[in-house]
């Protein structure tokens, strides 16, 4: 029976042109490679090389065998990768989100419902996860729009989030009950880098502002305490993780772009696998007033 290592050595011979160079690349002795070629000829019952006094070259049979060997080796490698990817997908739930706040509830919920599965989260500025979901690179996604029914995806709206500007109480904007992006376009602003699509919103609607992204949480908090720089928070973060210092006030931003409704997305073919999770998410949507009470 022809073995993979024999095909690999045959292809190496074809690629390098001589037995000596192929043997060197394969870390084999030349006699060992010669024996492999002879063994293949015996197994296939045809000559694969022409042997001259100081030269061995592939004949027409050998060239045809090399073409088939390349396809077989490519198929083997594809099989290995696909099986491994299938195994990883069954043992890992990859969820991507365009904003951090939805993951604060979703990741723990997934861990509690599927305790034997690893949860891999990704935060990105993109809001279109269709291709990654269909290709199976991720199993779940959180975006700001519903999925197209024709695209093989289902979506469940489950959460609202609204952007606020946080300023010192002594700031000239602090007296306002609401604010618009145009009111503070041009100010220096402090931002965290891990805010997903909100970063793109700020760049697009505040072109005259200097956006000062600070990576470390400690550095960010130190700048909040020691400077008068405004920064952003959301109603969700203010309720859960970001308490406003007593000397600051959070002002809701009235522009439409400052509000988002988040949708959970997944492939329809995965609906049974994630049935428990989808029911929980639908309950969240009903509690938020985003789903009708009678929707399953």
TrEMBL record:
Residues 10-59 form the HTH lysR-type domain. It comes from Bifidobacterium samirii. Keywords: DNA-binding, Transcription, Transcription regulation. Gene3D superfamilies: 3.40.190.290, Winged helix-like DNA-binding domain superfamily/Winged helix DNA-binding domain. Signal peptide: none annotated. Belongs to the LysR transcriptional regulatory family. It comes from the Bacteria. One of its GO terms (molecular function) is DNA binding. InterPro entries: LysR_HTH_N, LysR_subst-bd, WH-like_DNA-bd_sf, WH_DNA-bd_sf. This is Transcriptional regulator. One of its GO terms (cellular component) is protein-DNA complex. PROSITE patterns: HTH_LYSR. CDD domains: PBP2_LTTR_substrate (cd05466). The keyword Heme does not apply.
């Amino acid at each position: 029976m022809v073995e993979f290592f024999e095909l690999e050595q045959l292809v190496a011979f074809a690629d390098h042109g001589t037995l000596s160079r192929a043997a060197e690349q394969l870390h084999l002795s030349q006699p060992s490679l010669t024996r492999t070629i002879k063994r293949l000829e015996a197994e296939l019952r045809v000559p694969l090389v022409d042997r001259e006094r100081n030269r061995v070259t592939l004949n027409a049979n050998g060239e045809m065998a090399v073409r088939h060997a390349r396809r077989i080796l490519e198929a083997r490698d594809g099989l290995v990768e696909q099986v491994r990817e299938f195994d990883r997908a069954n043992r890992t739930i990859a969820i991507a989100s365009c904003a951090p706040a939805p993951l604060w509830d979703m990741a723990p919920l997934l861990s509690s419902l599927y305790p034997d599965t690893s949860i891999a989260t990704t935060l990105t500025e993109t809001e279109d996860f269709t291709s990654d979901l269909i290709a199976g690179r991720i199993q779940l996604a959180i975006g700001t729009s519903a999925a197209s029914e024709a695209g093989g995806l289902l979506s469940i709206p489950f959460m609202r989030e609204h952007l606020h500007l946080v300023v010192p109480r002594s700031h000239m904007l602090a007296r306002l009950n609401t604010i618009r992006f145009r009111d503070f376009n041009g100010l220096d602003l402090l931002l965290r880098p891990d805010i997903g699509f909100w970063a793109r919103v700020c760049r697009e609607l505040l072109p005259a502002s200097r956006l000062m992204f600070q990576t470390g949480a400690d550095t960010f908090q130190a700048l909040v305490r020691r400077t008068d720089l405004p920064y952003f928070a959301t109603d969700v973060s203010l309720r859960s993780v970001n308490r406003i210092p007593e000397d600051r006030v959070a002002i809701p931003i009235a522009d439409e772009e400052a509000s988002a409704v988040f949708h959970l997305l997944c492939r329809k073919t995965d609906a049974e696998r994630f049935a428990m999770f989808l029911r929980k998410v639908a309950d969240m949507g009903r509690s938020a007033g985003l789903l009708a009470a009678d929707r399953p």
